[in-house]
Write a structure and sequence with these properties.
This protein is of the alpha+beta class. It has 6 helices and 10 strands. The strands form 5 sheets. It has a two-stranded antiparallel sheet with strand order 1-2. About 5% of the residues have low confidence. A hairpin with a 2-residue loop joins strand 5 and strand 6. The radius of gyration is 22 Å and the shape is globular. The protein has 2 domains: about 70 residues, Alpha-Beta Plaits (2-Layer Sandwich), CATH 3.30.70.20; about 110 residues, no CATH class.
């Protein structure tokens, strides 16, 4: 058999490269399924997850517009969401400048629905906060808290409106010194009546009526409670794309 010509070698090389790329894309797409990865927390106004990656063009304009740099671009662990924006609330919650909705206004394709700009805050829901580990919650354990939140070297900021202006308060410059049991998730929540300290309406165990953070239907999933929780890892976390469960307090 005659040796392959340069043209045939180039053909086989390109075919192998194409097959490798196809297999790699398939593996990336299956990764969230294999690992049972949870949906990422998207910026306000994001379209449903089944269409969001196809609508987003990965331009990064929302990332640049975010006043607290809460938005990141997804890596391979997001499958089809590679390069799409998401928020890691534990490191930095949504800036919650919802009257501005800077990320939504910056989106050129409608992947972040500009229609929410004129809607009430309750139509900007990103997810829902859940107390995932009450046994470690300082409120449940009746423990106060003193120090910084966000780890030994916090980089997050809290954003608040002061009159007509917005101001950012770096967590690293604001140590806490609470007299009573920790209530930072309630104290720092920017949404009125979204979370409160109360006894659980449906105790998980007989006699379990210890006061704890109770998330209400007002929660929008901004992630501030997760960011300021002093436990490591956080006892309260945002479940992306989750609507308030029927048992959520009103």
């Amino acid at each position: 058999m005659p040796p392959p010509t340069p043209a045939r070698r180039a053909f086989f090389r390109q075919s192998l490269l194409g097959l490798s790329a196809l297999l790699g894309a398939g593996a990336v797409a299956l990764w969230p399924i294999v690992t049972k990865a949870s949906p990422p927390l998207r910026p306000p106004g994001a379209k449903p997850e089944k269409v969001f990656p196809a609508t987003c063009i990965r331009c990064g304009l929302c990332l640049q517009a975010c006043p607290v740099r809460a938005i990141h671009l997804g890596d391979v662990d997001l499958g089809f969401g590679v390069g799409t924006p998401y928020i890691a609330a534990r490191a930095q919650a949504c800036g919650f400048s919802c009257e501005q909705r800077a990320c939504v206004r910056a989106c050129p394709t409608g992947a972040l629905d500009r229609g929410i700009v004129k809607l009430p805050l309750t139509r900007s829901r990103m997810g829902f906060a859940v107390l995932v580990d009450p046994e470690r919650c300082s409120q449940v354990r009746s423990r106060p808290f003193k120090g910084l939140v966000g780890g030994p070297h916090p980089t997050g900021v809290l954003r608040r409106r002061r009159g007509a202006e917005w101001e950012s308060r770096p967590l690293a410059q604001h140590p806490y010194d609470l007299d009573g049991p920790c209530d930072l998730c309630v104290r720092e929540c920017p949404v009125p009546f979204a979370i409160r300290i109360d006894t659980p309406p449906e105790p998980q165990a007989p006699g379990d009526n210890t006061p704890r953070p109770i998330v209400t239907k007002n929660c929008l999933g901004c992630g501030v409670c997760e960011m300021v929780c002093p436990a490591d890892p956080a006892c309260i976390r945002i479940q992306a794309r989750m609507e308030p469960p029927p048992t959520a307090s009103s």
